C-alpha cells in the first residue's frame, strides 16, 4: 500500500479526491490538511460517513509518504514551499492548481501577466494529461493536473489537429459548466438564489485562464465562451470547426481512432451526441461528431466530462496510478 | 401619489418589495437605502432593468415621506433609531424583522432570552396580519410584518381554533421552505453546492424563532420541524391535527367560511391539496383539508404561500395599502 | 372591452396566455377550448385559481368575438379550417404555430419539404414581430406569432445587418432553452429524470425548423445549435460574429440605437452581459455586446427572452394590442 | 461467477441494477429483458456506455442461471408465471414489486382489496430486509425486495418498538421522495414542467400502498404523508413520536445499538440530523434522533436512503449476495 497525503481537503476537489482514495485498493491516506477546519473530521464538514481527521499543514509528517496532492486555492503563497519541501523529501506531487500547467515561459507571462514564481519547477513539471503524456508522467516528480474546461476542448480537437484536417486555426468553443467548478468558497455567484433557475455567460472571449492550456495542447487560437449551468457536476463544450476542402466524413471518424485503446474516452456512435448524464460521476470523456454542412467543411463537436472526476480528482488519481506504478485505471471504475 | 422609502434594498425582500412598488399605481419611491452598495443603482446589483438609485442611510430625507419599510437584517442595532426617527417625523413604518411581532413581554422574553429593546414600541406595534387585524392596521403608526412560516401554520389552524374543533392543544407542523427564506447573505447553507439536489431538516422541535408568532396567534403549542427545499420560492406546511369526537367533516369545512371574502385566501376544493406552484409569485394562500381517519378525528392540513410575496414583501404592501387608505389589493394582483 | 377566444388552453403557452389576459384591462375571454379536458375548468388542469371553463372546439360561438388565438400543436389538421372560419366571420387571428411565419413559398418548401397547405393565407399573414412590422400588424387579419429561439437571434443580429457591419454572411448561434419550450405533451425528453441535472445539444446544425425564420428576418446563413437547459423558462443565445475591417466599437453600439424607443428591448451597459433572470417572467429582451478581439472584428452577442412570454404568449398579446388599437404595452408590464 | 438475469431493464431500477451488477466481482449478467426496446442495447436507451443487449422475455434461456431479478411494473400479469417458471427451473428470484411483501393474507386483502394471486408464493416469500431477516433470506427461493419509503420509517422506528419505548401505537411519518421513485413511465406528474421548482403532498393519510409494509414490520399504526421533492434521488422521512414517561435520552440512544454492526446503517452523532446528500448514490441509511420536549417524551426522528440504491436495486444486490453466499457487501461499496 502506498501512502498519500492531501493538502486542502475541504474544497470540492479535495472531498472528491478523498472519496476516490478511500476505496482505492492500492493506497492509504497518510494525512489530510485543512485550514480553518483543522482538528475536526471530514464527516463534520461534509455530509459523509468518511471519518478522516483533518490536520493543519504544519502538523504534517512526510516520512513514509509516497505522494502528495495539493488541492489548494489558486495563488496560495504556501504552494511553492509545500511542493519544494515534498520534492526535497523525495515525495512526488500532483498539483491541482494552474501554476505548473503552462510550460513555455512566454505563454505563461502573456496569460498570467507576470513571471513564473518558480521557473525551475515550471520547467520540470509534466502536464498531467495521461492520454498524451503517459510516459513522462510515470517518471515525473511533479505533475500539473489538467484544468476542467480544457479537457472538453483538447480531447475533441486534438485528433483533427494531429491529422491536419482543420482549415482554420481559429476555433470557437462554447462551454457550459456546472456550479461545482466555481468551488466551495462563498461568493454571490454561487449562492443558490443567484444560480438556480438561471443561466449566464461569463469571462467570454479571450480572458479565461484555461485558454492558455487549450492553446498549448492544440496549437490553435481559441474563442472561448464559458457559461454557468444550474447543475452541480459536469462540463459540456460545443465546438464549431471548419475542415479543409476534400476532407471526407470517413477521414474525420478515422482521426479519432487514436483513442481506440483509451480506457476512458468514448466516441459516440454516428448520429448521436453525448449529454452530461453520460459522464456525471465517472471518469468518462464522451465525444460526439456532427456534420453540419459537410460540403462547406462545417462540423460541430460536442464533448463532456465530469469536472470533479476526470476534470480534477479522478484525473489526479489516474496520474498517481501512473506515477506509482499501479494499473492506470485502479480505483477509477 | 404617496411617497415611500425602503431601508435595506439589496436583500431578497427589499428587491421583491421594489418590484411591487414600481408597478403600484398609488405610490412612488422616495428613496431606497443600501449599505455597501450605496452609490450604485438597483440594476447594478440585481438582474433587473429597474434603475433605482441606492443611497446610504444617512443621506435619507424624510420630509414629504408617508411611510417607510424597514427590510434590515435581524438584530441590526440601527433599527430602533430608524423607527423612532420616522415616527417622530410623522412617518409610518412597516417593519420586516421579528422585533415587534410578539406583543406579550413574557412571551418575548421566553423566546428571545432577553428584554425587549424598546418596550413602548413593542406595546404600540400591530401584528401585520391583515386578515385578522385589518382595523388596527389602518390606524397603526408601526406595523410588524408577519414571518413567512407562520402564515402557513396560522391560516389553516386559526379557523379550527376559532370554532373550537381541536381535541389537542399540541399540534405538529412539518414545514418546507425554499432557499430564498434564508436571505441573500453568504453562508455555506445557501451555497448552490450545499443546497441543490438535497433536502434537510434544521432547527427542529421547539427552537425556531417563528414558533412564538404561531403560538401567539393560535393559542396552540407547536412542534415545528422546518426543512430546506431546493427551490427558490415558496413554503408549504403539512399539519397533523386531531379533532374533538363528534366533529363532522361539514363542521370542518364550515369553519373555513371565515375566509370567504378574503381576497387572497383560497380553500381547495374537496379532495385536492395545494402545491407550491399554486402560489409562487403571487399573494395567494392555498389551504387544503384532508381527512385521514375521520372516525378518530385525524386530519391533515396542507397550506402554502410564496415566502417573498404574501410571506414578506407583498404582505408589507397589503399593510401599507390599509395604512394609507388605498384599495387593500392595490398593486397586488 | 374586446372579446377574445383561445383555441388550445391546456398547453403551456395557452395557460400563460390566459394568465396574461385575465389581468389585461381591455379584453375579456369569450371562450377557451381544450380537447380532452373540455368540460373541466382551467383550475382543474393547472395549479391556478383561474376558474375559466374549457369547452370543446365545436361548442365555440364566434359571434361578438373580435380576435382568436390559436395555440394548437404543430401540424394540427384543424388549424386551417379554424383560421378560415374565423376570418370569414370577421374575426382576426393570432396564430402560435409556425404555419404562417415563412412568407416565401420557396423558402417554405425548402425547410418544410412540402407545399404550403393554404398559400393564400401564407401570402396574407404578417410575421408577428412588432418591433419590425408594427404598421402591417395593426392592419393584419392574420398574424403569425414569432418562434421563441428566433427572437434571441434576430434581435441582436438585425441592427448589425441593417448597418452593414458584418464581414461574413454565415453566423454561429449557440442557443440554450428551458424545458417549457418543448411543451406539455408527454415525452421522455421532458421527463424530470431525463432532463434534470443534465444538459444536452439536439437538432444541431441546419435542421431546426426555426432557422427558416432567423434567415428570413436577417438575410444571413445560420449554423444553429440548440441545447436543453434544466430550467423551466428562458432562452439565451450566444452568437459569434465577425465585423468588417475598420468597424469601430462605437459603430457597433450605434447600430443598436434603432431600439432606443422600443419598450421591451434593453441593450446592456458596456461590459455587462444579460442572464436568464433578467427576463424570466417578463416581456423584456436583453442584449449584450462583447468585443473579443476587436482588431480582428471578433464579437460575441448574448441575447435572452422568456420563451413563454416575449417568446410566445406575451408577444401574442402585444400583437393583439396593435391589432385592436390598444396601447401596445397594455397588460404587459 | 454466478449468472443472473434481469426482467425489466429499462426502468430506473433496472438500469440502476445493471450499473451495480456490471461492477460486481462475483456475478455476470446472463440476460436483460425489455419490452418495446428488445433488440436494442442498454446504451441506446440510457446515457451510458454499458453495451448490454436487451432481449424480449420469450427469448430467455434460464439454463445455467442462478438467480433472476424481476423489475417489472406493478400489477404486470406476467409476473407470477415468470416467478413460477424460474422456481420450477431451480432459479432463485428477487422480486421488486409489492406482490410478495405482505405475508399475512388478511393484511394483504385489507390493503390490496383483493385476494393474493398466488397464495403459495405469498406464504413462501421472505421479506427482503437483510438487517432483520438475514438468515431466512440466505435460504429463500423467493425474496420480496422492500419498498423504498418503508426503509426510512422501519429503520428508525424498529429499535424503539423493540425496546418498548413508545407511548403511542400511532405514529406520524412525513416523507419526502425524489422523482425517480415515480419511475420512468410517462406521466404528467413526472413531466419536468410539473415537478421542477414546486413541491406537493400526495396520497396523504392512510392510502399509500407502502403503509402495509411499515405496519407489518413495526406493529405500529401509521399516519403517512408522502411528498414529491424536486430532486432525482433520495427519500427523507421526518417522524414524530412520543416516548413512555421515564424513558431517558440514554435509553433512546441505547435502543439503536442493535445496528452497531450493520454495515450500511449509521446513527448520526448527538445533535446532528442527516440530509439526502449523506446517502445519495450509496447503500447507506442515515438516522438522526432529536429530542423536542424530552420531559413530555416528544422526539423527532429523521431518516433517509437513496430510493434507487438501498431503497431498490442495491437492496436487491444485498439480498442476492446473501442468497448466493457472497460477502453481504460485495459490489456495494
TrEMBL record, chains A, B, C, D:
It comes from the Bacteria. Its EC number is 1.2.1.38. PANTHER family: N-ACETYL-GAMMA-GLUTAMYL-PHOSPHATE REDUCTASE, CHLOROPLASTIC-RELATED, N-ACETYL-GAMMA-GLUTAMYL-PHOSPHATE REDUCTASE, CHLOROPLASTIC-RELATED-RELATED. One of its GO terms (cellular component) is cytoplasm. CDD domains: AGPR_1_C, AGPR_1_N. GO terms for molecular function: N-acetyl-gamma-glutamyl-phosphate reductase activity; NAD binding; NADP+ binding. HAMAP family: ArgC_type1 (MF_00150). This is N-acetyl-gamma-glutamyl-phosphate reductase. Residues 3-140 form the Semialdehyde dehydrogenase NAD-binding domain. It catalyses: N-acetyl-L-glutamate 5-semialdehyde + phosphate + NADP(+) = N-acetyl-L-glutamyl 5-phosphate + NADPH + H(+). InterPro entries: AGPR, AGPR_dimerisation_dom, AGPR_type-1, NAD(P)-bd_dom_sf, Semialdehyde_DH_NAD-bd. The gene is argC.
